[in-house]
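Data availability excerpt. The first of two example chains:
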Amino acid sequence: MVELKVKLYNNLAHCQLQYDEYEATIELCNKALKFDPVNIKALYRKCSAHSGLHMYEDAWTDIQSALRIDPNDKAAQLKANSLKPKIEKINKDYTTVIKKMFG
């Protein structure tokens, strides 16, 4: 029964993601991950939803979790590569702000 729930939540999340319903996607992925914390599809979809909301740090956390589970997952690797420049920019901007505050 748990397997079925995970599949159902994953499929619903996929549908919501197709309609750019990012908050609903995240909620459904969280439900799937509650039953199966190492579900790569749920982590990938959650990452995509966070990206859609421009929540790149959360997206990065999601995709890194997926890559820890399966470092060879090609889709997760591609997603991580596309997020990396955004994360680097966030870190650079953060460093600049800190230097201005304390420099």
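And the second chain:
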Amino acid sequence: MNNRASALVFSFLVVTVLSILGSAVVMRSASEKKISQGYADSAQAFWIAEAGLAQAYYNWSNGISQPQGAVSYGGGTYSIDASSLVQTRVTGVFGASSRILQGSFVFIPRPFDNTLSAGGNLRLSGLLARVEIYDKTRISGTYSRSFGASGWFEDKQENVDQNLTTIKIPDYSGNGVSDEFSDFVLFGRNAAQSYPEDQVVYIQTDNTVNIFPNQDLVGKKIIYVEGTQAGAGDVNIFFDTTWHAGEDLTVISTGDITYVEPLQFQADARLSTISWVDYNEASVFRSEHESIIYTHDDANFVDILDWGSTTGSVIANDEVSLNEVLTYEKYYYSDRIANGDLSPGFKWLSTTNNGTRKMMDWQEIRD
């Protein structure tokens, strides 16, 4: 009798253990299936978002209005938010999963096709000086030179439309009027906010800021100096051979930018500038650099005993002055610009004027 009772108790224990183990296996299997299904749904949502971003770019490129609300695709849906001047967001949904992709859709304005663009006149003056400008030079005014300087242009056109030589600031303030100082201030903030904080230096001051190459600037993309009024917040840049190779930095100022280059020569480095007022550059001896230079006003270059070169693009909404003394200066166009590889922050300028439509970049947004 006791043996039978013991056997019965043992049987109950075995059944209980097996039931628990079975339940655990079933629960684990269900959990793994749920995880697997969630992963599959998330991947499908990403693919749907990719398709939606491609469709959004196609619509924008062909002047087609973006759809309102959700669009059915691949067993799920995508929706397009094109309310920003530059950035378009697409949300892909499949099952309980959603993924968000963001692309920068911009016009590359015509001046980015040129080595040198002047919304006004181009003046060359100097003593025993020669300047050569390769690829396109476009001038809305006229070209003049002094007796002591000579200029050679591979492709120069004068009296051209300002849409080919200038870039207006988009209406970031939303007041219906573009190209105002308030628009430029918001442009600078948008440019700065589009990069991680550790890649940005944001300075609010009406004083002059001096920038020297140092270890703290390595990896930075934007330095934005913002004054309280137009012409405040000037920047002086002193860069020489100590600037690191491979860097790509843009300095933005609501005032003047003065770029001093004593014996500058870097490999595969780019330092670009955007200024509301004038751009001034002074170089001595051999100075070579790659830049995209944009000024809402005048661009003034002073070279002394310099046999250097500038690679990239110079865009001045007003006049350009080249002042040369005992120099042989060359300006080259950059293939990086031709391929749509603009300097940091410049895509926020690339929303106006007729030009080439391009998706500059895209990324996934994780909330």
